[in-house]
Specification:
Blueprint (H helix, E strand, L loop, with lengths): L1 E6 L5 E7 L1 H13 L6 E4 L7 H12 L6 E6 L3 E3 L4 E3 L2 E9 L3 E15 L2 E10 L6 E8 L3 H4 L1 E5 L25 E3 H4 L9 E6 L3 H14 L4
Antiparallel strand pairs: 1-2, 1-3, 4-7, 5-6, 7-8, 8-9, 9-10, 10-11, 11-13, 12-13
């Protein structure tokens, strides 16, 4: 997270706060094309000093790994669901360490499922995994505006200790403090889509997907 400040020849300074890292490069390119080649860039601080420090503090409180490490990529992985077969174009296994479980391995499998909520959608499925897919924990699917935002959403289950989802009036577990959440039907517009709370993650934000999967596995006693 960054804070961008640039100065014009007139007596003004303009500050753009909370520019996402992935958008900083294109923004600097546009500024340079407009003649502003030397902006002042500073990290956006939080009360704890930085977003990274705040995230680390949340992770310790929630017993989530401070860092997930990629340990292997596997080719040709698939998973047989009761009514369909997923074949994963990419399957990556990450390792994290918690106080409760010790070392945890979670895999992220990427696929495209046809005609899901009215279109072909990218899915990222999280599995408890020592190698290939073993036990599904959570799944993220592409939002309607995925092409522009590259964002995926996943339902939050476990309000009854099992598979029940959280509605707009339900209080989320404190473990989800710091996660970005929205309503499912705000991101996927199709008949029958649930009016339930979802976690939102950029497709490159594997930490959010892995942490959500870990929490979901715990709440459904899959870990």
């Amino acid at each position: 997270m960054t804070c961008l400040r640039f100065y014009t020849l007139s007596p003004f300074s303009v500050t753009l706060e909370h520019v996402p890292d992935r958008e900083l490069g294109p923004l600097l390119t546009h500024l340079a094309a407009a003649g502003f080649e030397n902006p002042v860039i500073k990290p956006a601080l939080t009360r704890s000093g930085s977003r990274k420090a705040a995230a680390s503090a949340r992770g310790r409180k929630a017993d989530l790994p401070e860092d997930w490490s990629l340990v292997r990529e596997r080719k040709g992985e698939s998973y047989q669901w009761p009514d369909s077969l997923d074949r994963y174009s990419r399957y990556r296994v990450f390792m994290g360490t918690t106080r409760s479980e010790g070392v945890v391995h979670i895999g992220l499998g990427e696929t495209v499922r046809k005609n899901k909520w009215g279109r072909n959608r990218k899915y990222v499925v999280a599995f408890l995994s020592s190698g290939g897919p073993q036990k599904p924990l959570a799944e993220f699917l592409a939002a309607d505006d995925y092409k522009g935002t590259r964002e995926l959403v996943a339902v939050i289950r476990g309000s009854d200790g099992a598979r029940r989802m959280y509605g707009p009036g339900d209080e989320l577990p404190h473990l989800y403090e710091g996660f970005r959440t929205q309503m499912y039907d705000d991101r996927v517009d199709y008949a029958g889509v649930w009016h339930k709370i979802v976690v939102v993650a950029h497709e490159d934000d594997h930490a959010t997907m892995l942490n959500h999967a870990l929490i979901q596995g715990r709440r459904r006693r899959s870990m």
